Amino acid sequence: MLSLTAMTIAFFVFSSVLKQTLIPLFTTTKKVEHINAGSLHDRLPVNQGQIEMDRLSLSINEMLERLEKAFKAETEAKEQMRRFVADASHELRTPLTSIHGFLEVLLRGASSNPEQLNAALKSMYGESKRLRKLIQDLLLLAQLDQLPPFRKECCFVDELILDMKPQLMLLAGNRKVLFDFPSPLPSDINKDQFKQVVLNLFSNAVQHTNPTRGVIQVIGKVNEKELSLTIQDNGHGIPQEHLAHLFERFYKADASRSRAYGGAGLGLAISASIIELHGGKIRVKSKLNVGTAFEIVLPLT
Ligand SMILES: Nc1ncnc2c1ncn2[C@@H]1O[C@H](COP(=O)(O)OP(=O)(O)OP(=O)(O)O)[C@@H](O)[C@H]1O
Ligand SMILES: [Mg+2]
Fold it and tell me: How many domains does the chain have?
């Protein structure tokens, strides 16, 4: 028969083992019960003195970490998609509303007045051009997102830009345009897409410079590692707080000014996607009332 002392000792040992095992288990289970989609940042207690429990908690914590990241990414993607659809609808609605308005006026009798008819047709033509460009840009973005097989070819960027010179000079009007290519710029690029980037950056420089005092410089350089192409203007510049967002879809640094030109804010987003697909980078530097410079940097192959 066990003595009372032995029984007491056995009880204390047993209850202490029980405490060590059950209390951490109880705390952990309680915590797990409270974790749900809204509290994925919660973590289970570790270092509770029970190796197996602590290991289990650590594994669950790692899983929670991954779940939390995936959940956050999905929420952000949904928000981005919502914003994209809202922005695209807004941009599509504006020219459509305008065309609709003109048609209403014409149907109410203005079509019998040749002057009014001509003005309305001209405006509707302008709006339909804007719609067409917007839809083309949206389609191009969708194509770039799907990472299509990318056809690159070896060419000289300086020659490619000089081939575009008549088109660029036409866009520039009376602005001064300077081309500076001290040495040939060989590169492996998709010619059509690269031309689109040059056109986007050059059109922006034109839109944001004075029609007669504007100066636009196209400067190409190459070193042993990379090629750099800068399109620099002496326009009104961009406030610093906008610079980080310029390459976002539909972003306009100055909505009222851009309205006058009817741009949707997609040109830079498209350019950035194209340059990214080439493994390069595009950066911007700007100073208010001094000018803006966009630099494309491509790795040499
Ligand atoms: N050279 C520049 N000088 C001053 N602001 C610029 C210049 N380039 C771009 N921006 C600003 O960045 C914004 C985004 O340019 P982006 O080319 O993406 O769109 P957009 O020119 O407004 O429209 P889109 O190119 O789709 O016709 C412009 O609305 C403008 O506010
Ligand atoms: Mg643009």
Answer: 3
